[in-house]
Design goal:
Chain A is mainly alpha-helical. Chain A is 75% helix and 0% strand. Chain A has one domain. The termini of chain A are far apart. Chain B is mainly alpha-helical. Chain B has 2 domains: 147 residues, no CATH class; 71 residues, no CATH class. Helix content of chain B is 67%, strand content 3%. Chain B has a two-stranded antiparallel sheet. In chain B, helix 2 packs parallel to helix 10, helix 3 packs parallel to helix 5 and helix 8 packs across helix 9. The longest helix of chain B is centred in the last third of the chain and has 33 residues. The N and C termini of chain B lie far apart (57 Å). The chains are: A mainly alpha, B mainly alpha. At the A-B interface, helix 2, helix 5 and helix 9 of A face helix 2, helix 4, helix 5, helix 7 and helix 9 of B.
């Protein structure tokens, strides 16, 4: 099997997962839900701030690639989780279909505008990683918000997103094992970043009272009323 | 007077300022596509020259402004060039430095790689400096048919970005008053970033929340469509420019695909 076949299989897996998520939510009427203005603004702010902060992260990635030679792409994969945060975070806060996709797409635009050295590639990458992040929550009908689902959301983000990078960075010629390892590292990185950052940030923001009208703010309010500590 | 961020819109009367936002965005995308499709130094030199000419002549940015906005990236790019030239493998030796051979292939790749990063960053700087975020939001609604609530939310977020630097200074001062010392070194900087991230996010969301309340109280979002008094239009010249840019990208990638232009990667085993 060559690298082209590998990524062909990855695309098919992505499509099957998307189809499965769609079938799972088809009868529930949750495929498309309108967002309030505040929710859209939250997605935009988180997406844009993560995007702007992602530019120094991308420079660090270039540094890794420069210093580590052929292993640079693998070293970069380890810090990629930082780019995937806005999707799971917005989905966890807003809890509506499409939140991760919109947030990550805005993240991509913000990265292009703030001079990300990976250029236009981050636009497509943003959409793909957000779309895959959304699927993790869609598998559970946007009803389960455990740490495991958040981790799955972070882990799925790079599944399709790695494909354009492989082309643009020219690592397709590095062999099957290299590409599989890069994908595995990215998925682990995405899951770890999501586990470590998503819930503490979302809870912190909800406690600060800046997420009014969102699902997590409602949950936080109920928790306080019940006298529990989140 | 507070120091303004380099990556921030400044009103002007240059040719680039007068172009509609979507044509300018198409220009950034074209530069990015062309720069990413070439690992050859001479191609990158031409692209860099085009972007520099656009910045200096068409967008009327001064060399000082360009340097102020990109000096950090410039240092990084120069470092990348030297490191890659010294470390990458090659076959055609051109000179020796301290008994270490320097190869033509590695120097060519390193120069292309460094220029590519700089070109993309400079392209973004030119776009951001010459494009009013409000006009961009309106163009997204009127020309790209993006729902206006999403376009305006993005506009709000873009308006907050230039204030981030100032916000970080305020947070730093507030923490210093409470006895939190600044940290040195890479790990210290990472810990500092963690400490600033939450207050920064809370501050940005609080500001946005106030804006949203104000907009909703004025009836924003009440209707599915929205009209604008002054919407940017893509003129005939801009349309021609977009077609030319599209042809350039398609032509370049077709040439690459059919092997008319040789794109090689030093890292990859042949």
């Amino acid at each position: 099997m060559n690298v082209g076949t590998l990524y062909g299989i990855v695309v098919v897996i992505g499509a099957i997962l998307a189809l499965f998520a769609y079938m799972r939510n088809r009868g529930t009427g949750t495929v498309v839900i309108g967002f309030t203005l505040m929710e859209i603004v939250i997605m935009a702010i988180i997406g844009v701030i993560n995007g702007v902060l992602g530019t120094p992260n991308a420079m660090l990635g270039r540094l890794f690639m420069t210093f580590s030679g052929s292993y640079g792409f693998l070293a970069f994969a380890a810090i990629c989780g930082g780019f995937y945060i806005s999707g799971p975070l917005c989905a966890y806060i807003i809890r509506k279909p499409g939140a991760a996709t919109i947030a990550e797409t805005m993240n991509g635009v913000a990265q292009v505008l703030s001079g990300n050295p990976n250029g236009v590639m981050v636009l497509g990458a943003g959409f793909l990683q957000g779309f895959m992040s959304d699927l993790a929550f869609a598998f559970y009908g946007y009803k389960r918000w455990t740490l495991g689902v958040v981790a799955l959301s972070g882990a799925l983000a790079p599944l399709l997103q790695q494909i354009p990078e492989v082309y643009f960075f020219g690592v397709g010629d590095m062999g099957l094992g290299y590409n599989l390892l890069a994908l595995a590292i990215r998925m682990v990185s995405g899951a770890v970043y999501a586990i470590v950052l998503v819930r503490p940030i979302a809870r912190g923001l909800a406690k600060a009272g800046v997420l009014r009208g969102t699902a997590i703010a409602d949950e936080e309010g109920k928790t306080r009323l019940a006298g529990q500590v989140a | 007077m507070a120091r303004t961020t380099a990556f921030q819109f400044r009103a002007g009367d240059s040719i680039f300022h007068r172009l509609d936002p979507l044509t300018k965005f198409a220009w950034v995308l074209t530069i990015s596509f062309l720069a990413f499709g070439a690992y050859i130094a001479w191609v990158q030199i031409i692209i860099t020259a085009i972007v520099l000419i656009t910045a200096l002549v068409f967008a009327k940015l001064s060399p000082r402004e360009i340097l102020r906005g990109t000096w950090l990236f410039l240092i990084a790019c120069v470092s990348f060039f030297f490191i890659q030239t010294l470390t990458l493998p090659g076959s055609t030796e051109i000179l020796r430095i301290l008994d270490k051979p320097i190869y033509m292939e590695s120097a060519d790749y390193a120069l292309a790689s460094a220029l590519r990063i700089y070109t993309i960053i400079l392209g973004s700087l030119v776009f951001v400096r010459a494009t009013d975020p409000r006009e961009l939001a309106i163009a997204l609604v009127t020309q790209m048919r993006v729902p206006y609530r999403i376009a305006y939310a993005f506009f709000i977020a873009l308006r907050i970005v230039p204030t981030i630097e100032e916000e970080i200074k305020i947070i730093r001062s507030a923490q210093a008053v409470r006895g939190v010392d600044r940290q040195r070194g890479l790990m210290g900087r990472i810990r500092e970033t963690k400490r600033y991230a939450m207050p920064l996010l809370v501050g940005a969301l609080r500001k946005a929340s106030t804006m949203v309340m104000s907009m909703e109280s004025r009836g924003f979002g009440a209707y599915p469509q929205r009209t604008f008094v002054e919407a940017p239009q893509m003129g005939a010249g801009a349309r021609v420019l977009c077609v030319v840019m599209l042809c350039c990208v398609l032509g370049w990638y077709t040439a690459l695909a059919f092997g008319f232009v040789h794109s090689f990667y030093v890292f990859a085993p042949s």
